[in-house]
Design a protein that fits this description.
This protein folds into 4 domains: 1-38, no CATH class; 53-151, no CATH class; 152-204, no CATH class; 206-276, no CATH class. 72% of the residues lie in helices and 0% in strands. The chain has helices spanning 2-5, 16-29, 41-44, 49-52, 56-74, 79-107, 120-127, 132-138, 142-150, 153-189, 194-200, 206-229, 233-246, 257-275. Helix 5 (56-74) crosses helix 8 and helix 12 (206-229) crosses helix 14 (257-275). The radius of gyration is 24 Å and the shape is extended. It starts with a helix and ends with a helix. Residues 117-121 and 129-139 have low confidence and may be disordered.
């Protein structure tokens, strides 16, 4: 109790002052509040603060979990490891289901969710149990995830505004100002968060939706082929079923021997070009 809450227990009922002091200390040490004395020096420096604004939790969570588990394991206590595994699985599944449900309600359609509740690493990432380590492990594109983590939030928003404006200008000639503006809604809405972006999807044109489905189908189909090629048949089946449930009118067929052969051929072709 002293280690976690700074309270010396003498067998008597705890006073309100002790409870208050213990709660504040626990909150600071478990990231509910900031504890500047336990933060890395560079994270509190004015020159580096813009790079970690709104990103300190995942950066500090990995260290917090590591220190806590190391301390408990040094005492021979393995229960925290078991609790973390159980909580990540149960809590992660619930959070991923909630994300998916909220997205469906706001967007008005059943989009394919690339966060898979069937995979343990995605459940761990969903609850933030391992901080930035869990995010990196769950990311499909590791370099894109790294770029997100090192890019300041303000710069990221500026990039989104610039890209959306550039596409708006480029599409004005083909779709007119009204059509181009409608197509830009989902791009500008990313700045305001995922909920606003999901709501903006209700105003997407049929052509936009069709283009998005084609892109996603190609991406998921490649993931399925990669999984089959790697011998991960269960993962491939989960991805295939999840896509077809979300898009029954735009299904992915069972991968054939010819599909696998074509994947291997392209891999070999890329490797041979690199060796030339």
């Amino acid at each position: 109790m002293y280690r976690e809450y700074g309270i010396v227990f003498n067998g008597k009922e705890l006073t309100k002052e002790q409870l208050t002091r213990g709660s504040i200390r626990y909150s600071r040490d478990t990231q509910l509040l900031r504890n500047h004395t336990k933060e890395l020096l560079w994270m509190t420096h004015p020159k580096f603060r813009p790079f970690v604004t709104l990103k300190t939790f995942p950066l500090k969570q990995a260290k917090f979990i590591k220190d806590g588990l190391s301390r408990e394991l040094s005492y021979g206590n393995v229960l925290p490891v078991a609790r973390l595994a159980i909580a990540a699985n149960v809590g992660g599944t619930a959070l991923l289901w909630a994300y998916d449900t909220i997205g469906k309600v706001l967007s008005g359609r059943d989009d394919y969710d690339f966060r898979q509740a069937e995979f343990a690493v995605d459940r761990i990432a969903a609850v933030g149990a391992m901080g930035i380590m869990g995010d990196v492990l769950a990311a499909e594109d590791k370099m894109q995830n790294l770029r997100f983590n090192v890019t300041p939030v303000i710069l990221s928003d500026i990039e989104k505004i610039y890209d959306a404006t550039a596409q708006l200008i480029n599409e004005t000639g083909d779709y007119g100002i009204v059509g181009a503006s409608r197509r830009s809604l989902t791009r500008y809405s990313k700045i305001l968060g995922s909920n606003t972006n999901n709501l903006a999807k209700r105003f997407q044109s049929a052509e936009q939706l069709d283009g998005k489905l084609k892109y996603q189908k190609t991406r998921v189909n490649k993931e399925i082929l990669e999984a089959v090629y790697a011998g991960e048949k269960k993962k491939a089946r989960i991805l295939l079923n999840n896509w077809n449930e979300a898009n029954p009118d735009y299904p992915i067929l069972e991968p054939s021997v010819a599909d696998i052969y074509e994947l291997v051929r392209k891999k070999q072709e890329k490797r041979s070009k690199e060796l030339q």
